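User: I'm curious whether this sequence folds into something compact or stays loose and floppy. Could you predict its structure so I can see for myself?
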Amino acid sequence: MQDDSGLKAILAKPWFYRLFKALIGSDGAQRWILQNFWKIQAGQKIVDIGCGPGVMVDLLPESAQYVGFDISDHYIRFARRKHAGKTNATFLVGEPEQFAVDTPTEMQGADLVIINGVLHHLDDHQALTALRLARKALKPTGRLVCLENCFLLRQSHMARWIISRDRGRNVRTEPQWKALVARVFPRFDTYVLTGLLRIPYTHIVIEAHP
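Assistant: Here's the prediction. I'll summarize afterward.
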């Protein structure tokens, strides 16, 4: 579930979403995650669940094959315009429920599935559907990497307040994230990160294997 009331509605606009991300240092954070967790190699296939306006494509090796999908037709139209002419990038509109039942060929056999800041917008049922889709899309040797915000038992008041204002209404604690992922993936590790952004914030990285 996502709260798009009041000023939060403007974040649904791709141009403002990208501006906001740049201001808080999200671009640098993604590059750090790219180097330390995604570790994308030339020629690999990447599936991006909840790709938004497709900002990740600019970070990829040219030989990588990218498939991004989002429920927002507005975001996907923006991504297709921005990356028009790139033969290694495909953008689809759809729901995880739809693709989990009938997974497009383009999404199958992925070396890496990314869920970046999406699951905290979903209730448990929806999040589990997205995770099951990720597992279905992965090749046996592939990996899922999720980056989400996270509540901790001990956390700065400012970080907790900022996270509580997020549009996503399903931010979970570290144990809750672990319990959720364990229902789909038998093997996974979690890493709690601070200092990725220019504002006080807490992230959790979940790296899972089918």
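Summary: The first strand starts at residue 45 and ends at 49. The chain has one domain: 6-209.
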